[in-house]
Amino acid sequence: MRIASALIPAAGQGKRFGKGSNKVFSTIAGKPILAHTISVFEACEAVNEIVLVIGRQELEAAGDLVGRFGFQKVRHIVPGGNHRQDSVSRGLEMVTGDVVAIHDAVRPMVTCEIIERSIDEARNTGACIAAVPVVDTIKSAAPDLLDRRGNLDRRGNLFPDAPDLIVESTVDRSNLYAVQTPQTFQTDLIRRAFQLAFADNFYATDDAALVERMGHKVSIVPGSYDNIKITTQADLELAIMKLGGGETRTGMGFDVHTLVEGRRLILGGVEIPYELGLLGHSDADVMLHAIADACLGAAAMGDIGRRFPDTDPKYKGISSLTLLKHVADILATDGWRIVNVDATLAAERPKIAKYVPDMISGIAACLGVDVSRVSIKATTTEKLGYIGRSEGMACWAVVTVSR
Q: Of 402, 28, 62, which is closest to residue 233 (Cα–Cα)?
């Protein structure tokens, strides 16, 4: 029986991505990039097994991801090496297929059609790459070592905008291709190519180059201009547009607490001097509770009563800022980010206007948003009802989230 393997290296540091963490765990439409990529190979009937290569410090996170999304074809999760070539080599040791499709983890928009086409071609020819024709004009550049007198000011100094590079020539693009992945090979062939490369201490920017230097022909199968590699934040934004990551929702939260003696009054995470405080299992911050419920409601994730039950002693007296931060983390894990918060407190006394800036600052920090995205208002009930009699306080909150 012929077996086709997929090898997905995901151990890169992603320095150009600018987040200081492995970009494969960044979310698009509520799903990590790595999960999007694995999903395509999981659904592709031509692929029998998947070998994932990940940084040693992320092995547990990768295992959790595989379990969370129920990927059945992932047979091995292998720790990566110092360079991509080292990581791929380690993955090749675990491959059992007669052909192997090596695919960048950060190309989540690959299609099953491209994968199947690559596998068929590799079985016939031994090696192939997915690629697309270059559509931009390509210039060859060189350092500007010529006389720059045209860039001198009247004192003979070089203008600061004098070019460091100049165009050397315009390259004929008719035979140029932008290389993508998967790059697919007969397994014995690519293993030999890696062995020879390491013996010569030769490192290349892609796997096909190792096969090329053996003198073996590498054929090209059509890729897709959508099959982009997510390298920068701009790439991520494009992928979000393509994968439908623009979902927006709104949730509403409401909470009410009784005012009693002998309790501190905490509102919006700020302690306010007052003779009464709000009664509750935690610090009873009615404003943060309403905001937290609105966040959870927008993401359809229940409410704070279910997440932090008042029957659990570990939440007794806990700061609601801590609870709100936990709610923000829950949403972020599922790919949601806070767009804006609008909360209205109903209380007869005390006046909170001078405390509002501190409330906004603390809430924004908790939710990881700019202060311009948080609005806090207060009103009275014109001395009507339990609020008008200063027996309690209530708060309504509306939160918009997107992913």
A: 28
